[in-house]
């Protein structure tokens, strides 16, 4: 009996000392349970680090995941599919997604959906990922900036497939160590395959105007008659309203209110342009 009590106590102590990784997003943890990765099988905000340390493929599309906290402990992760999730970054920079914390990553898919706007990430950080082979980002209307600087010197045969799926949307700026060579397909970039809507720069940092535009809002939202633009610090040049197929529905000059009379119910994209920057916001028409 004493031996049994000792073994039971030893097991309980070992379990209490087991290293855990915090997974605050319940939908993320549910997917780990569904994939038989989270061994305790319950949503408790954490997973044994040993459960995820050897996972090399993680397919978690369309799971309503907004927070990827915990992904840093997937130390063997090579293939990640996070398509169709309403992802946000950290509290200070909600539109920035930092995956440099997963240096083992080889293949990333972060697609949106043709008939739905799900991803609001406009900056993707991959500057500590020397094993990257493929980045696929389709129907993602928000992406503007991909930081590969630092990783790029180690990358051979990188394929980047980036297509917003919508006309009249800006180029994606790819930050690299040598933008001239990258643009001309020379040097270490000679074997890269990159979508035509990408440009290269040594410094893609979003301008002060971009940051201020991120703070703007549309109100009322949802709306059935008109909308206005709030928290605007710069003079508006044009406002364009698109449906989810990327077709321009209305175009406006700067004004106090913007009529949406006659539009069908549903979700729309509003592109707000100033002299030096642009931003995209969602508008629900009722």
From TrEMBL:
Keyword set includes Signal: yes
Sections of the chain in a coiled coil: none
UniProt xrefs under SUPFAM superfamilies: L domain-like
InterPro entries: LRR_dom_sf, Secre_tail
Annotated signal sequence range: 1-18
Chain ranges of the Secretion system C-terminal sorting domain: 218-285
Keywords from the named record: Signal
NCBIfam families from the UniProt entry: Por_Secre_tail
Protein name: T9SS type A sorting domain-containing protein
Organism this protein belongs to: Haloflavibacter putidus
Lineage, broadest ranks: Bacteria, Pseudomonadati, Bacteroidota, Flavobacteriia, Flavobacteriales
């Amino acid at each position: 009996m004493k031996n049994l009590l000792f073994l039971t106590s030893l097991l309980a102590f070992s379990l209490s000392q087991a290293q855990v990784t915090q997974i605050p997003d319940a939908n993320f943890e549910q997917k780990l349970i569904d994939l038989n990765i989270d061994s305790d099988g319950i949503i408790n905000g954490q997973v044994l680090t040993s459960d995820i340390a050897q996972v090399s493929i993680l397919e978690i599309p369309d799971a309503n995941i907004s927070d990827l906290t915990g992904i840093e402990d997937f130390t063997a992760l090579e293939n990640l599919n996070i398509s169709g999730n309403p992802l946000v970054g950290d509290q200070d920079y909600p539109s920035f997604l930092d995956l440099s914390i997963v240096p083992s990553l080889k293949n990333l898919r972060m697609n949106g959906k043709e008939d739905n706007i799900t991803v609001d990430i406009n900056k993707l950080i991959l500057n500590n990922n020397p094993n990257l082979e493929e980045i696929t980002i389709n129907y993602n209307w928000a992406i503007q900036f991909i930081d590969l600087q630092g990783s790029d010197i180690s990358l051979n045969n990188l394929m980047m497939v980036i297509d917003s799926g919508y006309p009249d949307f800006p180029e994606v700026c790819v930050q690299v160590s040598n933008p001239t060579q990258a643009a001309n397909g020379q040097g270490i970039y000679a074997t890269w395959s990159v979508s035509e809507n990408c440009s290269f720069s040594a410094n893609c940092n979003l301008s002060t105007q971009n940051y201020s535009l991120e703070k703007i809002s549309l109100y009322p939202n949802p709306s059935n008659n008109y909308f206005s633009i709030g928290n605007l610090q710069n003079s508006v040049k044009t406002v364009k309203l698109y449906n989810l197929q990327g077709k321009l529905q209305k175009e406006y000059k700067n004004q106090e209110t913007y009529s949406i009379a006659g539009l069908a119910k549903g979700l729309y994209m509003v592109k707000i342009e100033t002299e030096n920057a642009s931003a995209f916001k969602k508008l629900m028409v009722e």
